[in-house]
Write a structure and sequence with these properties.
Length: 407
């Protein structure tokens, strides 16, 4: 007899999680609660309710988390300018701590003693879900079917559905994209299929969902103006918007201009290398614009220290440590740095590229009187530079005098 009485399942209504519902009921003889999150994946989530009901589920949660996702997860991460391994904007990684948080909240609300997810045993998501769950509810039991069952292919899953009379749209299942995809309001990812050959060029336009190719983007540029308060975008072209509205609009205008496509090989936390393609049009714009507004509002040493801390912050997010004390510690420092990151950035989007063409702020540290190449009327004494240079050269001069030539 299983010790699990009730389990909360992260449920999409797709093939994998539909199988998991029945498998949990059979294997653990437990009650299943389904949780479906709308985090901007661009698909209707309400059909998941009918599918869950058809499988006898009594407690069904379908939550619109788009605003929370961008406000409490995406925005804080972009204040850090976080990029993993120099390229990846962490679109999948940043969604997992929110889903883990909501799974635990529902487990507490329903009295469930376990949670379950559909992540495989090869990927990072199992780690992200479970690290978050254990951080928020140390005693929770986690059930990861892909690490337990012997169903190893789409064909075996469909055979399981047929055997157990699980409702599946077989026509659509057979037409399913050859790529494994994950989408939320920040990005959409593609893995598997032809992408498993890192030499294969990802020029299949049927794969890309959110953007046109740069070659097919408009021949005239698009200009947009982003307004910032404390490091967060609060308006576009003078129109105040919520965080989710901001990212939705930036995805649209970026995608229309071929912005945000990425093809990389990344190092997974579990140890393997994985090739993936990503579309992050809004995030690509946000990253460029945020660095632009910081360039005139941040102190030099603060900016440089942020850049030193960023790779660690990005690694923590990628590896699933969003709820860790070290990530929270870094976030406090990062948020403190954003007090004066206010103002406007003007961008030109053209055939896949994002160009910064203007930046302004009442909190700007850019002093035209000092920086000018014209007469600065005494604002900067160039003779001061001589002593500055000599003091900074002192250690090298001493070493050279002692015979330690740098040649």
């Amino acid at each position: 007899m299983s010790s699990v009485k009730k389990v909360v399942l992260a449920y999409s209504g797709g093939l994998d999680t539909s199988v998991i519902v029945k498998w949990l009921q059979e294997t653990y003889d437990c009650e299943v609660v389904t949780f479906t999150a709308d985090i901007g994946q661009g698909e209707e989530v309400e059909p998941a309710r009918a599918k869950a009901q058809a499988m006898g589920i009594k407690e069904i949660y379908i939550d619109d988390l788009r605003e929370e996702f961008v406000r409490d997860f995406v925005y804080p991460m972009f204040r850090a300018n976080a990029i993993y391994e120099g390229e990846y904007l962490l679109g999948t990684s940043i969604a997992r701590p929110l889903i883990a948080k909501r799974l635990i909240e529902i487990a507490n609300e329903t009295g469930a003693d376990a949670i379950s997810h559909g992540a495989t045993g090869k990927g990072n998501d199992q780690i992200r879900f479970e690290l978050g769950a254990y951080a928020l509810k140390p005693g929770v039991q986690v059930i990861a079917p892909w690490r337990e069952w012997d169903l190893s292919s789409r064909e075996s899953l469909m055979a399981y559905c047929e055997k157990h009379e699980i409702p599946v749209d077989y026509a659509n299942a057979k037409k399913k994209s050859p790529y494994s995809m994950d989408a939320n309001l920040l990005h959409i990812s593609y893995e598997g299929g032809n992408l498993e050959d890192p030499w294969w060029e990802a020029n299949d336009e049927d794969m890309w969902r959110w953007s046109v190719s740069p070659e097919n983007a408009p021949d005239t540029p698009t200009y947009i103006e982003l307004s910032y308060e404390k490091g967060d975008i609060v308006a576009i072209d003078g129109q105040a918007m919520s965080p989710a509205e901001v990212l939705t609009l930036l995805n649209k205008v970026g995608g229309d201009n071929g912005v945000g496509r990425l093809d990389i090989v990344e190092n997974r936390y579990v140890g393997m290398k994985s090739r993936g393609c990503y579309e992050t049009p809004g995030g690509t714009i946000m990253m460029k614009a945020h660095r632009a507004i910081e360039s005139i509002t941040l102190d030099r040493e603060v900016a440089h220290l942020k850049d030193e801390l960023m790779p660690k912050y990005a690694e923590l997010v990628y590896n699933g440590y969003w709820w860790s004390p070290e990530r929270k510690m870094l976030q406090v420092a990062i948020d403190e740095s954003q007090e004066f990151v206010n103002g406007d950035v003007r961008l030109k989007l053209y055939k896949g590229a994002v160009h910064v063409v203007g930046r302004r702020s009442k909190d700007s540290l850019f002093d035209e009187k000092i920086a000018t190449f014209e007469d600065d009327e005494g604002a900067y004494n160039q003779q001061d530079a001589e002593g500055f240079i000599k003091l900074n050269a002192l250690r090298m001069r001493i070493a050279a005098d002692k015979g330690r030539s740098p040649l």
